[in-house]
Amino acid sequence: MSYNPNIHHRCSIRLKGYDYSQEGLYFVTICCQHRECLFGKIVGGKMILNNAGKIVDDCWLAIPNHFPNVILHEYVIMPNHFHGIIEITVGAGSARPNDNTRPARPDVNIVNNINDNANLERMDLGRANPAPTVGNIVGYFKYHTTKRIDLPTKLWQRNYYEHIIRNERSFNHIAEYIVNNPNMWNKDKFYKK
């Protein structure tokens, strides 16, 4: 069925007039299509990733390779959704997670082809690169995970949830929620057996 504005009432869930490419911290949640549990399972309060979950992990950790002014903070892959904190910084190329804040990942198969989808990345254009928006980053992540996880159906729901983190208290609260999410799985609003 094609889009019909009389039937389909799509409203933006983004903050009207807000520049999502500006420096700041953003909490994102992305759900699997139909909230299917595709990335592994929770055992004893810990997330055990299957192959699809490991691909999601690889693609998330590869984001700073494609968006040099993005720093990744706490994140968690759950059976049917993903939570993460993205930081957009000023000065492309100057911000990288350092070895003290990111785990060593010798087993990661990083996605390196930045020309796969120029419309999503807005990177290799032969001119000064505009700052990515949160939507560009999430779109890139969803595109590459979908491309690498070969499913006969859609991997992700159409949209994603984001929250602008405005202060340290909010950051700490969200980071704690992310870290504790696997332990609270049976109480999670996305819980599905």
**Straight-line distance between termini:** 31 Å
CATH-assigned fold name: Alpha-Beta Plaits
Give me the CATH architecture, please.
2-Layer Sandwich
* Total of DSSP H or I helical runs spanning 4+ residues: 5
Report the average pLDDT across residues.
78
- The coarse overall form would be globular
N to C succession of SSEs: EEEHHEEHHEH
Global Rg: 17 Å
Low-confidence segments, ≥5 residues, pLDDT <50? 8-12, 92-128
Question: How would you portray this structure in words?
Answer:
By secondary structure, this protein is α+β, with helices and mostly antiparallel strands. It has one domain (24-182): Alpha-Beta Plaits (2-Layer Sandwich). Helix content is 24%, strand content 19%.
Write a brief structural summary.
The protein is of the alpha+beta class and 193 residues long. The chain has 5 helices and 6 strands; from the N terminus they run E-E-E-H-H-E-E-H-H-E-H. The strands form 2 sheets. It has a 4-stranded antiparallel sheet, sandwiched between helices. Strands 2-3 form a two-stranded antiparallel sheet.
Helices and strands in order, then pairings?
Layout: E1 24-31, E2 40-43, E3 46-49, H1 51-61, H2 63-66, E4 70-77, E5 81-88, H3 118-121, H4 134-148, E6 161-165, H5 168-180
Antiparallel strand pairs: 1-5, 1-6, 2-3, 4-5
